[in-house]
Design a protein that fits this description.
The chain has 121 residues and is mainly β. It contains no helices and 11 strands. Strands 3, 4, 6, 7, 8 and 10 form a 6-stranded antiparallel beta sheet that branches. Strands 1, 2, 5, 9 and 11 form a 5-stranded antiparallel beta sheet that branches. The mean pLDDT is 92.
């Protein structure tokens, strides 16, 4: 069982994909392993801002990323808040890291984030 969280706010600029770290850095998992994870985040920003997320597999040696298709996480509500949950299952080869990126239509702040899942190494 894996539970990893971050305790500092993360600013995400609007209009570009930005890595979101769960704890010390942006690598959620390091291969080799099989996994099933869900990343939860609370996003604070302007009402109406759209939030999307995607996972990436990054080969550490070459810095080459394999990107998932974007997942629509929703629109920030009138209260300025959106709770996001993004899931993925898969297998990471040796020397490959799993990372998470967010894309927003306006600048936002990620005030809470946690990664939960099962990992088999």
């Amino acid at each position: 069982m894996l539970t990893e969280s971050g305790d500092t706010d993360t600013e995400v600029p609007g209009g570009k994909w930005s890595l979101v770290a769960m704890a010390k850095d942006s690598a959620l998992l390091q291969g080799p392993c099989s996994y099933s994870v869900t990343a939860y985040a609370t996003v604070i920003g302007a009402p109406g801002a759209r939030v999307s997320g995607r996972f990436q597999d990054l080969t550490v040696a070459t810095k080459r990323a394999s990107l998932d298709l974007p997942m629509d996480a929703g629109v920030i509500g009138d209260d300025g808040r959106l709770d996001v949950a993004l899931s993925r299952a898969g297998r990471l080869a040796s020397g490959v890291q799993l990372k998470l990126e967010l894309l927003t239509t306006a600048p936002v702040t990620v005030t809470y984030r946690v990664l939960r899942g099962l990992v088999w190494c």
